[in-house]
Amino acid sequence: MGYDIERFVGYVNEGLLCSICRDVLEDPLQAPCEHAFCTACIHGWLVHHSNCPEDRQMIDVSLLRPLYRYMKNDLNRLQLHCKNRGYGCEMVCSLESIDRHERECEYSQIPCSNAGCTVQIERRNLDGHLAVCEYRSRECPNGCGYTILSAEDTQHNCVTELRTELELLRSEMICRVEEAKHEMESRLDSQRRHMVQKESILQNEIEELKSQMSRMMSDVRSLMAAERQHRQELEQAELEKREL
After folding, report:
1. 104 and 82 Cβ atoms separated by less than 8 Å
2. pLDDT at residue 22 greater than cutoff 70
3. Which of 16, 54, 69, 166 is most buried, most CB within 10 Å of its CB?
4. What does the alpha-carbon distance between residue 239 and residue 229 come to, in Å, rounded to a whole number?
5. CA–CA distance, 218 with 211 (Å, rounded to integer)
């Protein structure tokens, strides 16, 4: 939807009005046939139609373009009243700067910042409202450190609140201890499984080394026996040589 034409000061050119809502263009787009529309208006129109609402020429979202620069400049120079005029704001400024003004306008209706409060208050009166808001919070004056709402002043009991806080802390501590316990047990189980696997691997390696050593000892014995046989043969050959 566009800007309400009643907010504007002076004459507004017909070409700066949306062809659908007939208000002053807001975030404008232009069709190839040069008719201009508010972005929200033309997008809503094209959901159910495929032509221009003015001359019925076929158009598509992809054919929409920004407003011509000279038209955009004319639009931005238009003067209009703040939307909070009904609350007392007398500001009149250009369309180009109206959004910035209205974001900061002292007459804007804004929600109370206290949780649970549904009051809408003028920005300029917010501080006064916060000072008396029944949902405002403050620290207990008796020193327990508990944050209380003004509406809870009469019901607040330091001992009860501290006991509740203590129970919550105890419950939280128990949960944390249980979580730490489960985590440690999980880690120990993981390490235990790892050690068992490592032990099995080492045991297999030991058995393999024993087997290799046994084969080596057998080979050494065979070599020693062959050496004795060879020595005996040499001694026999030496004897035969002497006899000859």
Report:
1. no
2. yes
3. 16
4. 16
5. 11
pLDDT value of position 88: 92
Please report, for the chain, the start and end positions of each structural domain, with discontinuous segments joined by +: 5-104, 109-149
The string of pLDDT tens digits covering residues 53-90 is 999 999 989 999 999 999 999 999 999 999 999 989 99
Top pLDDT among 9 and 144 is at 9
Mention the CATH class of domain 5-104. alpha beta
**C-alpha triplet 6, 11, 12: angle, nearest 5°:** 75
3-state secondary structure of 34: coil
Q: Give backbone dihedrals phi and psi of 50, rounded to 5 degrees, phi first.
A: -130, 25
Instruction: Give start and end residues of each alpha helix (H) in the chain.
Output: 39-48, 69-77, 95-104, 126-132, 158-243
Question: What's the predicted TM-score (pTM) here?
Answer: 0.52
Let me know: does 16 contact 25? Beta carbons within 8 Å. Answer: yes
Buried b (16+ CB within 10 A) or exposed e, 82-98: bbbeeeebebeeebeeb
Measured CA to CA in angstroms, residue 238 lies from 224, 227, 242, 244 at distances of 21, 16, 6, 10
For the chain, the farthest-separated pair of C-alpha atoms sits apart, in whole angstroms, at 150
Q: What pLDDT does residue 71 have? A: 92
